[in-house]
Amino acid sequence: xxxxxxxxxxxxxxxxxxxxxxxxxxxxxxxxxxxxxxxxxxxxxxxxxxxxxxxxxxxxxxxxxxxxxxxxxxxxxxxxxxxxxxxxxxxxxxxxxxxxxxxxxxxxxxxxxxxxxxxxxxxxxxxxxxxxxxxxxxxxxxxxxxxxxxxxxxxxxxxxxxxxxxxxxxxxxxxxxxxxxxxxxxxxxxxxxxxxxxxxxxxxxxxxxxxxxxxxxxxxxxxxxxxxxxxxxxxxxxxxxxxxxxxx
Length: 248
Prior knowledge:
single chain; mainly alpha; 2 domains; 0% strand; elongated
């Protein structure tokens, strides 16, 4: 099982992506607030502040979900893509800075803004709300629609099982000892960190067992059928990638 390097990621990596979708839903009307009165400084400021409060957790949750995508990629195809993906991510962030600056300059040029006089006109005043508020709100709508069709989190449990199984098989084939994630913590961080990890896992198992115990028989049956369908879908992806199905 891969370890999350970022401690903040460890906090968010178990939160359901539903929270990301809810955040993006709330960001859409929050951004639209400023469009109703773009010439009112107080309204626009409130719009930006409220939107920022919602976008911050959404961004962290998105990165946590990205870690699940990396795990799924490794579980299905046997290769991790962290380095390549984060390189592309960084390039997009850097490139968007120049792109958005260019868009702003194009709008200023198209609306005949005279920088020497710093005088605005009606066309410019109509365009600026879309540049600073409307465009961003439309992007949040696009993100919400994108996440509606993203279901990688349902594979999280079986992804981890597959990764561990593959690592054990690789260690056996190479004639070396398999070292679990917990044992790595013991060796690298000491007994205290190791015991803390075991305690955290025990608490998670107890919480899950308590949740399952509260379910009705019909709900337990439905969950078992859902898990079976997820396993079948996962194995189909593995076989399509030319890898053996996960057994057990």
